[in-house]
Amino acid sequence: MPDLYDIGLGNFDTETRQLANSDYVSFWENQAKKLVWFSPWDKTLDWNPPFAKWFVGGKINASYNALDVHQAQKSEKPAILWEGENGESRILTYKDLWIQVQKLANVLKSLGIKKGDRVTLYLPMIPELPISMLACSRIGATHSVIFSGFSASSIRDRIYDSKSKIVITADGGYRRGSVVKLKETVDDAIKDFDFVENTIVCKRTKTEITLTDKDKMWDDLMENVSEKCEAEPLDSLHPLYILYTSGTTGKPKGVLHGTGGYLTHLHSTFKWAFDIKNSDVFFCTADIGWVTGHSYVVYAPLLHGATEVMYEGAPDFPNPSRMWDIIQKYHVTIFYTTPTALRMFMKFGDALPNSFDLSSIRLLGTVGEPINPEVWRWYYRTIGKEKCPIVDTWWQTETGGMLISPLPGLETIPLKPGSGTRPIPGVSISVVDENGIDLPANTKGYLVIKNPWPGMLLTLWGDDKKYKDTYWSKYANFYYSGDYAIKDEDGYFWLLGRADDVLKVAGHRIGTAELESCIVSHHDVAESAVCGIPDEVKGEVIIAFVVLKENTQKSSELLEKELISKIRVDIGAIATPKQIYFVSKLPKTRSGKIMRRLLKAIASNDKIGDVSTLEDGAAVTEVQTAFEELQKSMKK
Ligand code: ATP
Ligand code: MG
Predict the structure, then answer these.
(1) What is the rounded distance in angstroms from the CA atom of residue 562 to the CA atom of residue 518?
(2) What's the CA angle centered on 278, arms 276 and 280, to 5 degrees?
(3) Virtual CA dihedral for 358, 364, 370, 373, nearest 10 degrees?
(4) Do 506-635 and 96-231 have the same topology in CATH?
(5) How many angstroms separate the CA atoms of 167 and 120, rounded?
(6) Residue 274: in which H helix or E strand, if any?
(7) pLDDT over 80 (residue 282)
(8) Residue 636 confidence (pLDDT)
(9) Is the pTM of this model over 0.85?
(10) pLDDT score of 259
């Protein structure tokens, strides 16, 4: 078992754990009381599987809890320290944000938006995005944020699905120094949609745009509009937002989240995982177009009245030190990012981060994919200077917030590189076999959730059947996460990759993360993706794709030999790949996750399916070429 890092903060809070274990419903009820409700609930949980209703009858408002509650004490405190990709900056205090949100809420009302209507937001990472989300939630409109890197056809599907009355966009957005035209893309996407009544356009770049009768400029609308708009008391179950998943395993799913339960989950987990203090400067690098951005850039930090950095652009633009530069500039104390970003930073070596003052950091976080232990150690050593806990947070768009994570704000717990440690209090998570039976320690199986939790999705938008089929059909009474995992003898969880991607060789099952982490621990390797392809003799053989670090001098033959012997020693001969390919990039979603299903589909001559969330088509071409070479060589 890997080394332990005993660097938790605070005391082990057995009382909280005991309470949560004895009665999870009362436990969450107590957490919910930390928010401000307009009227209390009659019933804490109405569980009619697979539909959970939390805090039934309670009235609450997300925008009120994010903004109004802080005005007495923190109106002048910075809420958002915004950094533009081009070096511009803006500071919005809690009062600024409150005023902007109320004004925009009045604008939306004046354009006919009512409680329950949907509004699509297709905006870059500029303060107008959280302002728009909070303005929607203030009046009970359900927002649907679409990542601003998506094409017209991807956004057309999502706008059609949500039947949004209004789309809020910008003339353009900056990405790696160039301007991405957003308004033009929206025009293309909605040209046949009569149900879209208006488009609101923010000015971010100097891109020329053509306005139609439906189009209104943000700045014009915000002139002469009242700064007062009372927050609407909404049912706890009121749909706060629709958000489409990353699409790593297939067509994105329109996840629908409610209000009271979701906010309770975020309020608790943000405090427990990040041990948030009034003096902190929090920086989460996620784009708001993904769930991490919704939960831990917008709602959770604001519920706590925290100060946060919001960055507009690519993490390595104009150079790979951009993140370290931002941390130094704003004295960031908590940094939350992804394994993909960390592997990219690692590729450039230690000298870059070492040339910045990162001493303000006291806590680090990661989310999105299993973190390779080697990458964890680098993060701990080079960025955290061996003094900061790393919270490896496992969760999904569907779960709303973290479900497995170290919780330095709650308890002391030794960390193990590569493990998300234990579930948060108040949830019941297990690793089970095909029949839903709990597996003994250190046995691989499927990660399931046995009780409803407050951040749980309400359903998939407009598709209860798909909701049931996707999450509640493999096991009758458990939520099926689709992830493969083990729980060790200390009760720590290790995520091994997607259940669909599990490698089956010679009667053994190996999670993709196990083999990839072994490959990535080789000194010259930056990144790796593995998949199984059908084989007439063995049933399945393993193929590995490897991206090398910058300036690697060794020949591919030598590297291949070294990697194979490493795999044999660390895992065993059965995990030896039939072929190792060295490529310069891997196919990823726009949220930075490796799309192994594409590798598998190409290799098995299957259709590659929905690629609307694919980051870079060139990576697919590279993989395709590699496979064609493999097929040719096998025919010889
Ligand atoms: P789709 O469901 O459309 O295929 P997706 O699952 O990638 O896309 P998200 O909801 O963004 O969409 O990602 C959740 C998934 O990310 C989890 O199911 C898990 O596989 C992975 N994940 C997230 N955090 C972690 C983590 N800390 N450790 C391991 N895996 C993680
Ligand atoms: Mg998923």
Answers:
(1) 12
(2) 60
(3) 60
(4) no
(5) 5
(6) helix 260-274
(7) yes
(8) 44
(9) yes
(10) 98
Query: pLDDT tens, 478-494?
Result: 999 999 999 999 999 99
Q: What is the tens place of the pLDDT at every residue in 106-165? A: 999 999 999 999 999 999 999 999 999 999 999 999 999 999 988 899 899 999 999 999
Structure tokens at 20: 């949560």
pLDDT digits (tens, 9 = 90+) for 172-206: 999 889 999 999 999 999 999 999 999 999 999 98
Ligand 1 atom at shortest distance from the alpha carbon of 393:
27
1-61+233-426+452-472 topology per CATH? Rossmann fold (3.40.50)
CA 271/CA 303 separation, integer angstroms: 10
The SS3 assignment for 418 reads coil
Tell me the best of 379, 397, 516 to mutate to test the pocket of ligand 1, counting ligand atoms within 8 Å of each CB and taking the most: 397
What is the per-residue pLDDT for 2? 47
> Which of the following CATH numbers is that of domain 506-635: 3.30.300.30, 3.30.420.100, 3.40.50.300, 1.10.287.1260?
3.30.300.30
pLDDT at position 6 is 64
Using DSSP, how many helices (H) and how many strands (E) does the chain show?
A: 21, 30
Domain boundaries, the chain: 1-61+233-426+452-472, 96-231, 506-635
- Give the number of the atom of ligand 1 that is nearest the alpha carbon of residue 498: 20
CA of 581 to the centre of ligand 2 (A): 27
CB neighbour list of residue 321: distance below 8 Å, 6 or more residues apart:
352, 353, 355, 356
Ligand closest to Cα of 399 equals 1
pLDDT score at 12 = 64
For the domain covering 96-231, report its CATH number: 3.40.50.980
Residue 246 has φ and ψ, to the nearest 5°, of -70, -20
The radius of gyration computed from the CA coordinates of the chain, to the nearest angstrom, equals 24
Q: Which of 276-285, 299-308, 350-359, 541-550 has the lowest mean pLDDT?
A: 541-550
Of residues 247 and 326, the one with the higher pLDDT is: 326
Pocket of ligand 1 (CB under 6 A): 245-250, 252-253, 290-291, 367-370, 392-397, 420, 481-483, 495, 498, 591, 593
Q: What confidence tens digit (pLDDT) does each residue in 235-254 have?
A: 999 999 999 998 888 888 99
What angle is formed at CA 590 by the lines to CA 626 and CA 247, rounded to 5 degrees? 85
Q: Which of 158, 243, 246 to mutate to test the pocket of ligand 1 (most atoms within 8 A of CB)?
A: 246
The partner residues of 580 in beta bridges, in order of sequence, read: 544
Question: Whose CA is closest to 461, among 610, 189, 253?
Answer: 253
Query: What does the mean pLDDT of the chain come to?
Result: 93
Q: Is-contact 2 373, C-beta < 8 A? A: yes
